[in-house]
Design brief:
Order of helices and strands: EEEHEEHEHHHHHEHEHEEHHHEEH
Structural class: alpha/beta
Largest sheet: 8 strands, mixed
Radius of gyration: 21 Å
Number of helices: 13
Strand content: 15-25%
Length: 331
């Protein structure tokens, strides 16, 4: 059953001259309990997607068109009161830096109790008991003591666990995790991702994991969307995309993984950089960095087309599939 349905979502940012497009008509669905990864370089539009879903875009950014249907309600048409009732309650977000979420002048307990009482009719003691249960669920040692501590008294890994506990406080249907392990060391990263996966599985919570790490995506998610310059350029089951990437950009991301390079060799990288919003090339936005680019790529934006279990936006992939179809028809 579909939990979230996004259709032709367009996000723009006003500039002094006119406006620039950060998300260009993206569409996707997330089912209840499904884990979806959103992958791409910095500037691809991953975080903007998460902020738009939560209706957290601030000026000069704004939603210019499209629908965000969450449990049948269009988020873009909600009143401020409806948005407050949804945000943190039915849909929650985990940010890159836990200190963005945690207030440094309030104790952990004050913040968790305040969150609960903002959405539920609970006494302070009832809210405190629920907070304790959630801290235990995310394996916080000595949870009673932690409730009375301030964020600066805790380690980075413990702060991120507390942020996950806060996200789960009100039993949301969907969690948007925006690079939840970026600021942590490798061993803590693995623990946090295992914890997030366990929480989502045990509570049947949908997860939208925003990351640049394809290794994490392959271990945690069931489906993956690859974004480039504000568009979804490849989408499908994670196994299909990792094992047989179709788009040249996705292939480049996978080839750039350290484990794809023999020891002692230089790491592979995609040449060039992501185009800026104010200087978006005509046609396929990836063509200036693509070794397979043709005149058609430089002139025409490729549509997102279904091929088996995967959707791909690439003229070269379309050409290859047309040739395969002709060969099969000739046999």
């Amino acid at each position: 059953m579909t939990l979230l349905s996004v259709r032709d979502l367009t996000v723009k940012f006003k500039t002094r001259e006119s406006s620039v497009t950060a998300l260009d008509g993206i569409s996707f669905d997330i089912a209840r309990g499904e884990r979806v990864g959103v992958v791409g370089e910095s500037g691809a539009g991953k975080s903007i997607t998460g902020f738009a879903l939560m209706n957290l875009l601030s000026r000069p950014g704004y939603i210019d068109g499209g629908q965000i249907l969450f449990e049948g309600q269009d988020v873009t048409k909600m009143t401020p009161k409806q948005v407050r009732a949804m945000r943190g309650n039915r849909m929650a977000m985990i940010f890159q830096d836990p200190m963005v979420t945690l207030n440094p002048v309030l104790t952990i307990g004050q913040q968790m109790i305040e969150t609960l009482r903002a959405h539920r009719k609970l006494s302070k003691e009832e809210a405190r008991q629920i907070a304790l249960v959630k801290l235990k669920e995310v394996y916080i040692p000595s949870p009673e003591a932690r409730l009375d501590q301030y964020p600066h008294e805790l380690s980075g890994g413990m702060r991120q666990r507390i942020v996950i506990a806060i996200a789960l406080l009100l039993d949301p249907q969907l969690i948007i995790a925006d690079e939840p392990t970026t600021a942590l060391d490798v061993t803590i990263q693995a623990d946090i991702m295992d914890l997030l996966l366990e929480m989502c599985r045990s509570n049947m919570v949908g997860l939208m994991l925003i990351t640049h790490d394809l290794g994490v995506v392959s271990q945690v998610t069931e489906r993956t969307m690859v974004m480039y310059a504000g568009r979804i350029i490849e989408s499908g089951r994670t196994r299909s995309i990792i094992n047989d990437p179709q788009h040249p950009y996705t292939q480049g991301l996978i080839n750039a993984l350290p484990q794809q390079t023999p020891p002692g060799s230089r790491l592979k990288q995609i040449p060039g950089t992501m185009p800026t919003l104010s200087a978006m090339p005509q046609g396929c936005p990836f063509h200036p960095r693509c070794a397979l680019a043709t005149d058609e790529c430089r002139a025409v934006m490729p549509p997102l087309t279904q091929y088996g279990e995967v959707q791909v936006a690439c003229h070269e992939v379309q050409r290859l599939h047309r040739e395969l179809a002709k060969m099969e028809a000739a046999q």
